[in-house]
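Quick one:
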Amino acid sequence: MTSRSLTGTLRGVIPRSLADRLGWLGAGIVAFLLGTAVFAPVLAPFDPAERVARPFLAPSADHLLGTNDVGQDLLSELIYGTRVSLTVGIVAAVVAMVIGTTVGLIAGYYPKRLGSVLMRFVDVVLILPFLPLLIVLAAYLGRSLTNTIVVIGVLIWAAPARIIRSQVLSLRSREYVLASRSMGAKDRWVIMRHILPRTALLATGSFVRAVSGAILLEAALSFLGLGDPIQKSWGSTLFWAQSRGAFLTPAWKWWVLPPGLAIMAASLGFALIAFAVEERINPKL
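Output:
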């Protein structure tokens, strides 16, 4: 084997290997967070809503992350916050993917009149000022977990719709699709049998990336005071830390940093999985 061919081989192997390793790293992070969410009642040493010690207690053997301004255990808040933040992220991503996949399939399979109208609507959604619209809708609908999921889901569906639509445009001209249509197969059957299964991997990558974005958006809304005030999420922990003066005391080290790092870890974990899936779809990435 010549040095040139060896270099070409390495160039083809290293990116795939790197993507796989990053994907497994992301999967490990996500698995750890999901396990924490599922077993939160077992892992949390205290009820996160219960006052268990004096306020602003520094980390100790009994309270590994200390306590907040009312004496609630911050480690328990962080563990239960994993459950809420991941739930919002995953369910909001499901809502976005249902809408985005439906719009993308219809717009790609019927690209002329119906598809053109749908894509103009997608373009409008994509060019709207995202963050101000998110804040306005969240404030208008009210502070609840359901409203947070709905607001995030209906605002992040447009990007997956555009991605899936481009894939459907390519698939609808394939020989097996044209053969099925020429034999009288109904459009619904063709979409479900030939189109949808071949967009599954692409939709998976979009879904994982949507989860990552939804977790960040939930944290942002909660930090601004627009999330559910009753539920303990990472974002709501940051909101209460900011509103109760944690930044003015040494408590910010154990009240602010852990949920901030948890948000970063969750976003990174899902982003790495999405990167690995997208690299599988298009090795040139």
